[in-house]
Amino acid sequence: MQLIESSRNKTIKYILSLKNKTNRKKQRSFLIEGFRFVREALLSGIGIEIICFSMESGDEYRKEIQTLTSKEIKYIVVPPALFARLSETDTPQGILAVVDIPEKSLFSLYREGFRGVLLDSVQDPGNAGTIIRSAHAFGFDAVIATKGTVDIYNGKVLRSTAGSVFHIPVVDVAEDEEVFRFCKEHDIRIIATGLNEGKPCYECDLGRNFLLAIGNEGRGISEKIKQISSASVYIPMPGGAESLNAGVAASIIMYESNRQRFYV
Fold first, then answer.
1. 158 vs 172: CA distance, rounded Å
2. Which of 35, 84, 185, 251 lies at a C-alpha separation of 20 to 30 Å from 202?
3. DSSP tag of 106
């Protein structure tokens, strides 16, 4: 366990740099915070470079984290004031980690009966994180994000996933053409979501071999995705609300997919 007290230290500068999206992409690494989140990462087997503790975190707390892995991880301790600079939360728990961004090839994701979610320029971090969490919960095979989507490794997105980001393949910044090739090669239908467009979700085949496209919060599904989609679904809302947010809508449709696949 290395004690670091200077903000000019090379490791500290590296951690600080990962608050920037460009640096995360360049280094293929991102930051996570909190005991439960770091514990989830360790248990998932994802690559972890550094675990950083505040001096305020107790010895037992640190020992519990260290017993979860035998991998070569760099452990450091920093003063509370320096930890506050590294942290992205208002009330830091005194632990954060530098985690490797998994190298996931889109074409390696397919398996028989594939079910995936396509984030088509989804911008709200809470929505993106909720969709990843629900996709994991409902046993979907992957979440794919297009170029216009919020950075999946943004701290707010990661916290909204509640650790599910470690348990379901997520492909960030996929090119539209690459997604189209993937779908064509494996005979995967793209099903677009919309307001009162197409069929009610319970009348559409959501059992297998499809990619559910969730559109931008303001503009909806892009024209490019609409043109190559094979179906469109909506969620009937007899209560009269104008719409549901993207995270809730996606979760309801994923639940309907599970109902069709496992309970009908």
1. 13
2. 185
3. G
Q: For 53-97, what is each residue's pLDDT tens digit?
A: 999 887 777 788 878 876 789 999 999 999 999 998 888 889 999
| pLDDT over threshold 90, residue 209 | yes
Instruction: Please check whether residue 143 is in contact with residue 164, taking contact to mean a CB–CB distance below 8 angstroms.
Output: no
Which residue among 79, 100, 121 closes a domain?
100
Give the residue from 33, 68, 100 where a domain finishes: 100
Q: What is the CATH number of the domain that holds 200?
A: 3.40.1280.10
Q: What is the pLDDT of residue 70?
A: 63
- Distances, alpha carbon 77 to alpha carbons 57, 94, 95, 264, in Å: 9, 10, 9, 54
| pTM for the predicted model, two decimal places | 0.92
150 and 235 within one domain: yes
Chain mean position to CA 240: 31
**Average confidence score pLDDT of the chain:** 92
**Amino acid letter at 239?**
G
Give the integer Cα–Cα distance in Å for 233 and 168: 24
Strand, helix or coil at 162? coil
| Range of the structural domain that residue 114 is part of | 106-262
